[in-house]
Amino acid sequence: MEEALNPSALGFGLIILGVFLIFIGLLMMIVLRGGEVEWGGGAIIFIGPFPIAIGGGKLGWFALLIAALLALAMIILLFTTTYWGKPAGKGG
Fold first, then answer.
1. Total-model pTM
2. How many CB atoms lie within 10 A of CB 74?
3. Residue among 56, 57, 61 nearest 37 (CA)
4. Residue 46: enclosing H or E segment and its boundaries?
5. β-bridge partners, 45
6. Distance (Å, rounded) from C-alpha 16 to C-alpha 31?
7. Nearest to 56 by CA among 74, 37, 43, 72
8. Distance (Å, rounded) from C-alpha 55 to C-alpha 84?
9. In Å, how far from its chain's centre is CA 18?
10. CA–CA dist 64, 41 (Å, integer)
11. Average pLDDT estimate for 47-57
């Protein structure tokens, strides 16, 4: 008999994989560019309903734009899957 996949183990494994891939990408950038690495980044932090946007570096605006689009997609996904006129799981 097969065991069901544990969702928390899968989530933890994906987080570890993501950190590992970021680390490998950082090492590749350093090696391929000879130590001259330009940085840039952006983030959106939600505290309740209030977003705080931060960005920096040469391409910080681009990272901030991507973060804003992902945040908007997450909000749309939240409201379309959870609150479509009634709470989830109440039947049709």
1. 0.46
2. 12
3. 57
4. strand 40-47
5. 52
6. 23
7. 43
8. 33
9. 10
10. 7
11. 74
Chain-centroid distance of CA 36 in Å reads 26
4-48, pLDDT tens digit by residue? 777 788 888 889 998 999 889 888 877 887 767 677 777 777 776
Report which residue type is found at 79.
Answer: F
Given the structure tokens 């940085």, which residue do they identify?
Answer: 39
Give the C-alpha separation, 83 to 92, whole Å.
13
Model confidence pLDDT, tens digit, residues 60-78: 777 778 878 888 887 888 7
| Rg, the chain, Cα only | 19
Dist. CA 63–CA 41, nearest whole Å: 5
Q: What's the token pair of residue 29?
A: 């950038």
- Return the amino acid letter for 22: I
Q: How far apart are CA 13 and CA 20, in angstroms?
A: 10
